[in-house]
Design a protein that fits this description.
Protein name: ATP-dependent endonuclease
Number of strands: 9
Helix content: 40-55%
Keywords: Endonuclease, Hydrolase, Nuclease
Strand order of the largest sheet: 4-3-5-8-9
Radius of gyration: 20 Å
GO molecular function, one term: endonuclease activity
Organism: Paenibacillus sonchi
Amino acid sequence: MIVTTHSPAFIDVSRDNTTIIRVEQINGQISGTTVFRPERVKLDDEDRSLLKLMNIFDPYVAEFFFGGRCIIVEGDTEYTAFKHIMATKPGIYKDVHIIRALVKILNHFGSRYSVLHDSDTPTTLRKGKTIKNPAWAHNEKIYAAIQDRPHTSNVRLLASLGNFEKAYFGEEVGSEKPYNAIIHLQHNEQRFEKVEQLLDALLDHSKVPPEGALEWTSIAQLEEMVAAQASKELVAAGTEVTIDEVF
């Protein structure tokens, strides 16, 4: 069966038996076609499970197939914050897609996109002991996925220092993070402008991101920058420390 559609609700990239042909048209002329097959993108079981959940909770997640500007975010807080800003200025951000996965699929299409994630730290304290931070491994996965992109794909990779709340609101939040972000954006103009600057920097790679956002190109660089920031925070708190002592 062949279906021709402009509706993202008909697109389910999690199915193995799906072949999708995207036809791009500019000024009435076909400028290119891209064939999508799941086996070519090398989706693993975790990818497929995530895509199925995304299709359930947001049947329009596949809108990126039809063009527009894409930002990949790691968590619900970033997603909620950016969606709130976009809702307040729909004329500016009408072609922007905020999605929480799909790097492999965007790579397949050679798409231009940006990624925002929490930097976390290489180590963490648990029961008074310093251990490897499991969250740090996500940085390595993100980096590996982006490195697998074609040379034609223009990608910007930004990390929020520590996490989104700490980087842009100056606080640690334990629960109800998306709700907390909305409250900040609704009642604090400076924080709204800071997150909007972040959104704009993710959309326009020539723009400078706000303080709290790190642009990085290697795991070693990210680790060095996170360690330097942690050292600054300790010094600001009145504790003398060397970089080697941070982690």
